[in-house]
Amino acid sequence: VFTTGSKLFVGASALAVIAAVAVGVTTGGAVGITATISLIGVALAFGLLAGVNFHIRDGNVPSMVPDVQRTAAAAEPPASRSVWPFAGAVSGATIAVGAVTYPVVFKLGVLLALATIAEWTVRAWSERASASNAYNDGVRKRILHPLEFPVLGTIVAAVVIYSFSRIMLWIDKDAGPWAFLAIGAVVMIGGFVIAARPTVRTAAITVVLAVATLGLVSVGAVAALDGQREISDYPTTIDYSQEICVAPGEVDDPHLAEIDERASQTVSDKAATAGTVVLEDGELRVYPRSIDQGFDTITVPKGLDTTFLFRNLDEEHRRFTINMGQFTTEENGTAVVETPMTCTSLLEHGGETALTFKLPKPSSVSEAPYTIVVPGIEGQQIEIVVP
Amino acid sequence: MTERRKRLGEPRGDAVKPVRRRRLAARIGAVVGAVMLLGSCAKDAPQDTWQPAGPNAQTIQDLQWWVFMLAGVVGLIVFSVLGYSLVRFRDRGQEMPEQSHGKPALEITLTIIPALILLVVGIPTVNTIFELADDSDATCVVNVTGQQWWWEYDYPVQEGCVDGGITQPIVTSGQLVIPTNVPILLQITSRDVIHSFWIPRLNGKRDAVPGRVQPLRMEADEPGIYSGQCTEFCGLSHARMRQEAVALYPEDFSTWVDNQLTPAAPATERTAAEGQATFEAQCSRCHQVDGLTDIEGNPVLSSPDQYLVPGAAPNLTHLMSRNTFAGATWDLLIDECRDRVWNAEPEEFGALYLEGVTPECLNGLELREWLRNPPAKKPMFADPNNLESTGGKYRGMPNLNLTEDQIDQLLAYLLERK
After folding, report:
1. I need a labelling partner for B202 at 20 to 30 A (CA). Which of A46, A238, A305, A374 fits?
2. Residue B197 near residue B146 (C-beta atoms within 8 A)
3. Which residues in chain A have their CB less than 8 angstroms from residue B310's CB?
4. In whole angstroms, what separates CA B283 from the centre of its chain?
5. Using CA atoms, how far apart are residues B42 and A201, in angstroms rounded to an integer?
6. Contact B396, B374 (CB under 8 A)
């Protein structure tokens, strides 16, 4: 009753069901769920193929019709040699290697296997679609090209972009712009030559493009293996609060001095701030949002991300520091005192910046008050009250 | 049957059906109309935007009533013409009527009329938006912070709000207490997700967005309780994130402020003292009661940041001075006492509200249910076995597995928190 082809797919479907049950029972978590659902999907796909094969009786030519024996697609030799058995072997090997090495290799093998299955299946079907090889080839292209072209285009573009990015991260920082300029110029000149000389042979262009792509990918691979050049992190006041939250001129480390050198002196979005802290004529005041009056105390809700705008109207460069209390904890019988703080970058006269902070504990818990001060200016502080 | 109809002069079956259909449609229309009409007569509708109780809501009302009328008239005309056309010119196999393509005068007229209507509506609407956004006249500031699923109100130290100003911060929740005829500035934000603050009888909505401070004016003409609710879907118990604004005459508000600034007194009665011990052992991990000290005299300080995603829990120092609990979802007063407060005359309201919750008026049934198993009463993310995504922290109050004796003791302790 069952045809040979449908038996194959029924068996594959049954195998996938068994695998789904086995994985579902033995593997928990998100991986288990994903694998089980995937295997159920595979089982359904094979089930569908089994049904199709059963319905069309494997596409067998009725033996009682002699003419069909000569004119049927099955009587025609294949249009060309197939690469898919080889691709299937490569994907199987990749899966096997990936299973014992890296997950990414395993995933690559699975993707290759899925692509092989799809391509091979459509090809096998299209070769028996009619008695005409030309028609069969056309059918295959009509079905697969809408998938093949975008996928291959994406892969080629990704390889080129990735290779290029590795090269740019590999070469010296100062040489980067020149390399970018040179490659861009070569591409533009090449395009210009091709446009100006339409008689250039396609084969020559193909060879040039192939060599260029190969060169790019090769150098990119070398760059990727050699690793990136040393890239230093851009420091922030939050990362180095204990070192940087001091008076101007007291920061010795040139690396940390970048914080102040590169700091923006303007703020574009001021809508979210809870208030503005202003230093003017040596006096420090906070103006709560929507209130024109200045205060030396402000209340901030507990555990809330709060943003203040800090404006320096002093003639000197100044920074604002938020002292976030003092807490003593005990570690291995030793008292450890913590004095968390954060601060703005150095602000020039008229400069302003925003700073977001959170005080998770009420003022009463801290051994020292929460305050806003300006290092280098004595006797001025704003107390932050956290109820 | 056909012969009988012919004899009696009755119409044929297919002629009867449209008549029946029309009658059925008329009946359905009458029922729907009656329901809508009766719905507008709801007596207990505390969130009615058509009953403004303050100048900001009145400003909205002054705009919305005639915009609504205008929109109603336009809607009536459009639907009447549409209905007439659908019935009068329905397909009965007649000839295609003359089409009105290519009549510029008609098309321009039909474009200009809606544009003019939009202009007439748009200019006052923009004016109203700017008028409501102007908060420069506010003399009292309240920080409003939303979190799943309750509102916290804190009154910063300031010179406004009350004669002599507010000298120490006040933190409360559930009920926003304000003085009447004083322009209030609410500084609205959120600790976790986006919420939306809305007291319909006092002003429009304002979103509470984490990391942003959004201002909203608020002012009440008369003493009373004005209810509202969160209007931005914010998770499991969004529907049970309610809020109430309580307006008091300035002298009553002053009394309220004085009371809020008074630290909690130790439990006096024996059961309450046992409740205090339970509170210290269980509840004080998240809930703060100002003035509460342990047996060594050290202040008992809560650390909600260690246990809760938003890092805050309602301050319970004066729980029984307010009328609601659990995000203003349930009343602390039994129905009889609640009605007395809600329906009080303006002159009597302040005294009744400041009375707080008395033992006779306590809604012990629901407060007990809450203490017995909070997540069962109000859906929350508080299953201890399912907190992977929050690093072990709860959203809402977990089940503390209190015994009935502990619940009784806690009730006695909380009843003294006025």
Report:
1. A305
2. yes
3. 303
4. 27
5. 85
6. yes
- Report CA torsion sign: A142, A147, A151, A154: positive
Of A163-177, A260-274, A348-362, B231-245, which one has max mean pLDDT? B231-245
Q: Does B171 touch chain A (CB under 8 A)?
A: yes
Q: Are B319 and B279 in contact (CB under 8 A)?
A: no
Q: Residue B350 pLDDT more than 90?
A: yes
CA nearest to A269 within chain B: B212
**The pairing of beta strand B242-248 with beta strand B175-179:** parallel
- Nearest-Cα distance to chain B for A280, in Å, is 22
Strands A334-338 and A283-288: unpaired
Within a 10 A sphere around the Cβ of A21, how many other Cβ atoms?
13
Give the separation between CA B354 and CA B351, rounded to whole angstroms: 5
Q: Which residue do the tokens 């304000």 mark? A: B178
* SS3 state at B272: helix
Q: Residue A364: its chain B contacts at CB < 8 A?
A: 299, 301
Residues found in chain B: 418
Nearest residue on chain A to B172, judged by CA atoms? A387
Displacement of CA B217 from its chain's centroid (Å): 16
Query: Encoding tokens for residue B141?
Result: 């500031």
Is the pLDDT at A288 greater than 50? The verdict is yes
Contacts of B340 (CB under 8 A, 6+ apart): B352
Cβ neighbours of B183 (radius 10 Å): 18
Interface-testing mutation among A300, A304, A356, A383, with chain B (most B C-beta atoms within 10 A): A304
Q: How confident is the model at residue A221 (pLDDT cuts 50, 70, 90)?
A: very high
**Phi, psi (deg, nearest 5) at residue B175:** -115, 125
Residue in B169, B185, B311 closest to A360 by CB: B311
User: How, if at all, do strands B195-198 and A297-299 pair?
Assistant: unpaired
**Does B188 touch chain A if contact means CB atoms closer than 8 Å?**
no
Closest CB to A365 among B154, B301, B310: B301
Tell me which chain B residues have a C-beta less than 8 angstroms from the C-beta of A305.
210-211
Looking at the complex, does the CB of residue B170 fall below 8 Å from at least one CB of chain A? yes
Contact B141, B210 (CB under 8 A): no
Confidence of residue A25 (pLDDT cuts 50, 70, 90): confident
Q: In what order do the strands lie in the sheet with A297-299?
A: A297-299, A381-385, A370-373, A321-324, A341-343
Q: How far B34 CA lies from chain A's nearest CA (Å)? A: 48
Q: Under an 8 A CB cutoff, do A305 and B210 touch?
A: yes
Which of B271-303 are b and which e, b meaning 16 or more Cβ less than 10 Å from the residue's Cβ? Answer: bbebbbbbbbebbbbbbbbbebeeeeeeebebb
ipTM: 0.71
**Inter-chain contacts counted by CB atoms under 8 A, chains A and B:** 72
Average pLDDT on B338-367 reads: 95
What's the pLDDT tens digit per position in A52-79? 888 887 777 665 566 666 666 556 666 5
d(CA A304, CA B208): 12
Tens-place pLDDT, residues A176-207: 899 889 989 998 998 898 888 888 888 888 89
pTM value is: 0.69
CA nearest B134 in A: which residue?
A290
- Interface test with chain A among B136, B151, B157, by most A beta carbons within 10 Å: B157
Q: What share of chain B is helix, strand, coil (3-state, %, to 5)?
A: 45, 15, 40
pLDDT at residue number B1? 45
State pLDDT tens for residues A297-311.
998 888 888 999 999
* Residue A81, CA distances (Å) to A77, A127, A134, A149 in order: 10, 11, 15, 21
